[in-house]
Amino acid sequence: MTHSRNQAEERDINDLFDDIVLIEENCAAAGYQEGFSIGCKKGNEEGYRVGYEQGSSLGNELAEIYGKIVALQQVQHTEKVRRALNQLREAINKFPRENRRDADIIGSLENIRLLYKKLYKYILLIMTVANLRKRLDTVLGFLEPYWEWVNCHMVNFLTDNTWQTYVPAALQKEVLGVSQLAACIETIFWSEDVQKSSLEYPECHKFVKLTQQHSLHSFDDILLTLDKFREINNIETHNHLNVKEFMSFKKKHEVEMTVNLIHGLLKSESRDDVFIIDAGDGKGYLSSRLALEYGYKVLGIDSNQSNTESALKRNRKLQKAWLSLKQRAELEGLETASKKEKRKRRKGITPKTTSNYKTTSRFIANDLVLSHLLKEHFPDANCTSSICLTGLHTCGNLASTCLRVYHSQPECKFLCNIGCCYHLIKEMYSNRESFANMEIMNQQTEPGFPMSQYLQEKQIQLGRNARMLAAQSLERVLAAKEMPSPSLFYRALLEVAIREADLHFKENIQIGKIKNYHNFEEYATECLKKYPFLPIKTERVKYIQQKYQHSCRYLELFYMLRLCFSPVLETVILLDRLLYLHELNYTQSYLIPLFDPIISPRHYAIISIKK
């Protein structure tokens, strides 16, 4: 696996843009001197001031364009783009430097602006793509020494001596004794005293800080806040119903934030001309809310037939309670009903139950034609209808499939996708992996990682354990000060016994979840009930527990340090998806932190708008 950067791309575009400031200053200074001299000679001070202001503004505009051209010419482009860049650069070079009567300054300026306008979209795309590639290179470079660590099995913590094998020596030296392990966890992870952390455990502190710096939440140049996204796309905030019934607190938070975002995206669209397709509909939390609260026509798709039936059942209950929920919201101070609705209510007219929400059981693949599916359930859908493809926690490969479907089908004008279950992603360059649900995995026709051409050319692979780590929540663990479950250590102890027995089938033993135990002996007893053929005696279990009694503290710190890679690995997956969209020229594609990460760990939304 190679993560080295191409030598031809060492000179980064963003670094070249620093030269623009100097070019602008030189142009402004030259314009000032020329205007000042001419103005003084003519004795027309007012004319000089006006001329200087216009000349300075013009110089800045041309200098900015020229600087971007010079920067863009440092990297490879198609022949067509190279010609356009040369043409624009030549036009600026030929721009009149003196205000002669025979010089068509206005005409030359308009020509330059026209040429630049044609290139502007491409320039923005190149800048974004270059920045995403640079970020990915940086993150992958950071991960390079740690791939074996992030892909190790916690089950093998004792048998493979993973503490000594994977934890950097500098970190090991800071916690030489068992007594220091708990103190290190308390200081580095639970305490908010940064100064104490950096003084007592400088190497551990430095390591944790580095993982934070290579995580998505630190990339302000790529992440777009929800408020900024609304500002850019002229989306107004609005009140929404506070529906506490029929869902958990976590799901309520996710649904309300997502519904609000989607409605903002589609607010300018006619309800008759836009349809929403919810991929991985599940119990219909998102889709039924969009249909009931805002009147959108929504088709929920789920591969599980029982899920679609549950979604319809839940929607019927929600419809019956909807009127009272709206009335309660109004009493709480939220204006949710129009004047027309209120008049009908006073007259005792009950609104008809909506038929805007439909469901279907399908496996979403790249060749699924959404417009045909819509037509089956909404006969009024036509070829001019716009589709908004949504997905609230699309599992595994479904997220990447949604991005491909969005690209391949012109009717898909909007995309709002929040992915999850990274461990179920099918990788292009990873060796064959074992999955609990092979039936679903075998239906995946295309890999879900990497998606971008850039990472495909590098043949990047993550590994199943790395993806499982990416799906964990560092934020939740830190907020709850939550140590790993004792079962993690117990399973590592049991693995010692299994290895000692030298069983040829040890790789196929999947213990799974064990209930009703209070100590390792009880845990081992329950495991042996599942695998009675294991030749492990009670006396041996007691001996192993005694031998490794102090190793539990090492496992806890190992677990916490390894968990710091979780947001770093998620960053690679999400930046790859965003880069995929930008490589396909979808310049209005964004990555937004939509949810509270403690409430909902998979909280990043990928938004894309086709012009």
From TrEMBL:
Q: List the InterPro entries.
A: Methyltranfer_dom, METTL25, SAM-dependent_MTases_sf
Tell me which domain of life the UniProt entry assigns to the organism this sequence originates from.
Answer: Eukaryota
Please list the residue ranges that the record marks as compositionally biased, kind Basic residues.
340-349
Q: Where is the Methyltransferase domain?
A: 250-427
Q: Where is this region: Disordered?
A: 334-354
CDD domains to which the protein is assigned, alphabetical: AdoMet_MTases
Name of a matching Pfam family: Methyltransf_32
PANTHER family listed in its UniProt record? CGI-41 METHYLTRANSFERASE, METHYLTRANSFERASE-LIKE PROTEIN 25-RELATED
Q: What is this protein called?
A: Methyltranfer_dom domain-containing protein
**Which organism was this protein described from?**
Glossina austeni
